[in-house]
Design goal:
Number of strands: 10
Largest sheet: 5 strands, mixed
Shape: globular
Strand content: 25-35%
CATH architecture of the largest domain: 2-Layer Sandwich
CATH superfamily of the largest domain: ATPase, nucleotide binding domain
Radius of gyration: 17 Å
Oligomer: single chain
Number of helices: 7
CATH class of the largest domain: Alpha Beta
């Protein structure tokens, strides 16, 4: 099986993981302001624990978003830097799909709705179904929580379910909710291994983050209007 080194910085958690055979080694830390400084030491740490070098990896994977604008840019840039010198392929894994993978691992669910807090009163969300691989039911979307529509009955995961709990209380599509399941490099690595086998890797120079929002902050007037509604 291919060896994958993965990084994920799309949320307040920064993580790195190495998937080598059946062994998965991971590190994580919190603090958005330190993501760019913490990732490379964690990469070095997981490689050292496995006793291998970066050159022995078959691919580099990263959480491509949606998520924090700065976070997904950081992950993409670091993944490109790691891969470029060794001419390793890169896998840009959708963070919401990695959350679905986490949900399947802990609950056995095959129909998953991943919901990530996007701030500004909105959520990033997508729906996935697992057969022998992940199929996208609804592609990653940015919307108000009230506008989310699931197809069928799903298991929901992600912090959007808790941040906007009142909004989601009106929905009846979720049979279970795991708001604690967030993007993590361990899940990025597992999805990436499957995607590598499907021929979805790209050259380092072609790797791109996923952006769903053009503006990353509300104006002063928008914030005031929101506070009075």
């Amino acid at each position: 099986m291919p060896t994958i080194i993965a990084i994920e910085t799309s949320s307040e958690i920064a993580s790195a993981a190495l998937l080598c055979g059946d062994q998965l080694i991971a590190r994580a830390t919190t603090g958005v302001q330190t993501h760019s400084q913490s990732i490379l030491p964690m990469v070095q740490s997981v490689l050292a624990q496995a006793g291998i070098g970066l050159a022995q990896c078959d691919a580099v994977a990263f959480g491509a978003g949606p998520g924090s604008f700065t976070g997904v840019r950081t992950a993409c840039g670091i993944a490109q830097g790691l891969a470029f010198g060794l001419d390793l392929p890169v896998l840009a894994v959708v963070t919401l799909q990695a959350m679905a993978q986490a949900c399947r691992e802990v609950s056995g669910a095959s129909d998953v709705l991943a919901v990530l807090d996007a701030r500004m009163g909105e959520v990033y969300w997508a729906q996935y179904r697992y057969t022998d691989r992940w199929l996208t039911v609804t592609a990653p979307t940015l919307s108000a929580p009230s506008e989310l529509v699931a197809r069928g009955t799903v298991t929901a995961c992600g912090n959007g379910m808790s941040v906007y709990a009142d909004a989601f209380a009106a929905h009846s599509f979720a049979v279970d909710a795991r708001p604690d399941l967030m993007p993590h490099a361990r899940w990025i690595a597992q999805v990436a291994r499957s995607e590598l086998a499907q021929g979805m890797a790209v050259a380092a120079r072609d790797a791109q983050p996923i952006y769903l929002r053009n503006k990353i902050a509300l104006t002063t007037s928008e914030r005031l209007a929101k506070a009075t509604t």
